[in-house]
Design a protein that fits this description.
The complex is a heterodimer of chains A (462) and B (547).
Chain A: H1 7-18, H2 24-31, H3 35-47, E1 51-63, H4 65-73, H5 76-84, E2 89-90, H6 91-98, H7 102-111, E3 115-118, E4 121-124, H8 134-140, E5 145-146, H9 152-160, E6 165-177, H10 179-182, H11 209-223, E7 227-229, E8 234-236, H12 237-240, E9 260-265, H13 272-286, H14 292-296, E10 297-300, H15 305-315, E11 320-329, E12 341-350, H16 356-369, E13 375-379, E14 385-395, E15 400-410, H17 412-415, E16 424-430, H18 431-439, H19 446-449, H20 452-457
Parallel strand pairs in A: 7-11
Antiparallel strand pairs in A: 1-5, 1-6, 2-4, 3-4, 8-10, 9-10, 11-12, 12-16, 13-14, 14-15, 15-16
Helix pairs in contact in A: 5-7, 11-18
Chain B: E1 3-7, H1 8-15, H2 20-26, E2 33-38, E3 41-45, H3 56-66, E4 78-79, E5 85-88, E6 98-105, H4 111-126, E7 135-141, E8 149-155, E9 159-160, E10 169-170, H5 171-177, H6 179-184, E11 193-198, E12 204-207, E13 211-212, E14 225-231, H7 234-250, E15 254-256, E16 259-262, E17 265-266, E18 273-278, H8 279-286, H9 292-301, E19 305-309, E20 312-317, H10 327-338, H11 358-372, E21 376-377, E22 383-384, H12 386-391, E23 413-414, H13 419-427, E24 436-447, E25 451-462, H14 468-483, E26 488-491, E27 497-507, E28 510-518, H15 520-525, E29 532-538
Parallel strand pairs in B: 4-15, 5-8, 5-16, 21-24
Antiparallel strand pairs in B: 1-3, 2-3, 6-14, 6-15, 7-14, 8-11, 9-10, 11-12, 12-13, 16-17, 18-20, 19-20, 22-23, 24-25, 25-29, 26-27, 27-28, 28-29
Classes of the chains: A alpha+beta (462), B alpha+beta (547).
Chain lengths: 462, 547
Amino acid sequence: MSQVFHDIEKKIITSLKENPIQTPETLEKSTQLLPDQIRRGIEWLKLKNLAIVDESKSSTISLGKNGLDSFEKGLPERRLLNLVKNGPRKLSDLQKELGFIFGPAMGLCRKNNWIETSSDKIILKITPSILPGEKTIQQIGKNKLSKEQIDKIDLTELLKRPDFIVEDIIKSKKISLTTSAKSIDISNTSGAIDVEAEVPEIFVARTHPLKDTIDEIREIFVTLGFSEILGNMTQSSFWNFDALFTPQDHPARELQDTFFLDGISAKKIGTVEQISKVSDSHKKNWRYQWDINEARKMVLRTHTTCVTIKHLAENKPDEARIFSLGRVFRNEKVSYKHLVEFNQIEGIVVGKDANLRNLMGIQREFYKRIGITKIKFWPTFFPYTEPSLQTMVYNEKLGKWIELFGMGIFRPEVTKPLGITKPVLAWGGGIERIAMLKYDLDDVREFYNNNLGWLRSNTKCQ
Amino acid sequence: MPVIELSYSRLQKLIGKVSKKQISDSLPFLGLDIESEDKDLVRIEYSPNRPDYSTDYGVALGLQGLLGIKTGSVKLAIKKSKNYGITVKPTVSKIRPFVTGIIAKNGKIDDKTIKQLMTMQEDLHFGIGRKRKKSSIGIHDLDKISFPLIYTTVSRNHKFIPLNSEKELSISEIIADTETGKDYGHLLGQSSQVPIIIDTNEKTVSFPPIINAAITTVTSKTKNLFVEVTGINKDDAEDMLSVVATILQSAGFTLEHIQISGAKNSSPKLQEKKMTVDSSLINQTLGLNLNTSKIISSLKKSRLNALSKGKNIICTIPAYRFDIFGPMDLVEEVALGYGIQNFEPTISPSQTLGQINPISLQLKSLNQTMIGLGFLEALNSSLSSKRVLYDMTNRDSKNIISVLDSKSQEHTLLRDSILPGLIENLSRNIHESYPQKMFETGGIFNLDNPISEKTNLSAISAHKDANFTEIKSVLQTVLKIGFGIEIQTKTAVNSSFEDGHCANIIFNGNIIGIIGEINSKIIDNYKIRVPVVGFEISLSDSILKFI
């Protein structure tokens, strides 16, 4: 069987046959491959024992800033000696003339006994003909030389001085073919490819995982006979609270729970009849002075119920199954459990036969379709429903019951003022909670981080 | 929702023959969620409409009913008495017009009971008291007070020793320096006169709604109590009093009447009320078929009294159950007494055909097209920040819509554009491999009497060869395939884009968006190392079809 070669390998072998010892750079030129392809090709050939990679290190030497200075003007000690050549000089004058090199120059000259100091004068004792390092500085000059060309003793001396010598270490790879590779006849190799080789990772474009959950829930509602309605995220307090029997002085209406829009009020909030009947219901049942300006204040909806109640007030259906799905807002501190903005689903059934057992039955059916079968119902409280229940679902992974959707029948104090005469079942809850169970997340913020690492790797069918 | 800590052993003593398990199994069916348990202690969450559940006495009453140990309503036995009176002066009318109260005698108060009474008081203040604005309570040691009392007003120079203080303070000092003064002083406004309860020896008893006098402090040695409630509405004040009276009676106190008069005030009645509910409303609403005797026994388990008259059920509701507004509330009481666990869920066939909203359908198709073009869907909050929306992207922040008092600095403004969020997303992914292509469809907000909400599509592509041509091809294709729409691009200048590499998107002669290479300053701001191109178009006005 003939050997299997990747195109990259074929090109590299061919080039090395023509020119037996090459560097990756020369291979790039001769094969027209990218550096990364050359790197991979060499690795593959090396693994197959077809290529030899000889890695070597070499150093080049050039002068640094101070070295170049000495090349042009002489070593500091030579410059000092030159200045005292023609007779003693005042120390302070020399200091001025030589600047910062004065210190090191003095040190060296004194150490070698070339000069002596008498009171404030410096006097020459001997002039050495050649100083250590002097020749080498001249030898290097402005060039780059290989380390081997340079006198070792001189180099050691100069390396002690700051910024005199720059040493560059160069790694080089020399690639050649092994004997067995040299005998390969590329033109005679098979057209097959290496099907066992690793391939590069590519990334999928996809819907957002939370959107998948939202779409799934939307489909379930539709198959249960529900029609979708849409509504605004910004709402007047009237529809978000007053129409839902939440009194104006209720703690939930305060800034710490609800996002009020700074200085923005709605001019028109409802019909004259709606406003007067809703306010009457508040005055009678909650015993306070209802204020229309409070109802005009715009908020970011705290639930989608404002959308459904508005729809019911406008259409007054005798029979209906509707749902609304969208973002809702709570002024909370963001944490692994809480977001300021999340998605809510809400379903509504209107009809003369709508009753609590039906409401529980629809819940059971819904949960069954998202794969939850162990559920139970507990009583709870919501300002706008009576009776009110919540669903508890058993989570196998966590091994405990967790709270999901809330539900109830709209209070007559809500429906009557708006002219809704038939019983209205309502239920709903956060979608992120369901999605967290589905994707096994313990931090809800992940849904809005747009972290490509997570989005690109998350399994789509769960 | 408020949370209270109870002890199983204390509950067992109060309820009668009952096991710990029976209690923990039954609590949720009273509407009380168990937050956590630790041996004898259990923390439960209760609804603000049932302040009687803020003490173990109230919870015990409920459990006795549900478990069938004691059923029917709790009757308040209030002894008539002429020993106690409060006279109200007309000066209080303008500031806090009503006072009511009750005497509770011969009870035993241990530290746990005191703690519970204080929690109940705080919950009542917060809930029906609306943070003491509507009504507030003071509970005092009766034996430190000499009746009759006067409810009147004094100037802010008036001095007494307030609760938790050792020295005399003036009203002004109390408001300025004490914790409750700072929290609730504003309820009195700028009025120079403030409400006060003074005893017959002119000793200060209470400065409502701020603080009691130190002298009447209730301790574990206290045997007899005086409870006062003041407020701006007489009915609310009596509602509050009825909860305290019911709990104190359950705790073993004997109640005695206080005579109150003056300035439209009168003695509290704390009377039961009667309400009729049609048994067919009950059965229709619950989906059950209960006979009247089953309905009556269920109501009794919910600690109400009831009798039948034909199809009608006549209910007697004690004063502390002011959460019962009308017949529908009684339906719920029947459901609770019957037991929510006994309801068998049913499903009735749908009479309607389901439909996805056409807008949602169109947006879904649009998303699929963008994905087909290799773009990954991103999701950002509509509440963003000035930094992301304007500062980092050089955009004009003239018409911002901000929310009040956000607890999160990253969420203070409603977005008027999606693109800035997507660019910010790129900055968080600079360590991930390129090309990075993302898109988002979602709501944007603009000021418009008061606010207009529109749906936009924005897409972004970042990699070393990203250029105008590439992103225009994407835009052109998504609109052609998605909606059969052809657009033009006309040179434009925009601070978010590079000059000479930016265009308005034109459809039917109208500008519907912007496209181009993102300004290199913005890319530098975010330390992104590759060129970025992107577009944003408005879908609401001319592209999405409203059917």
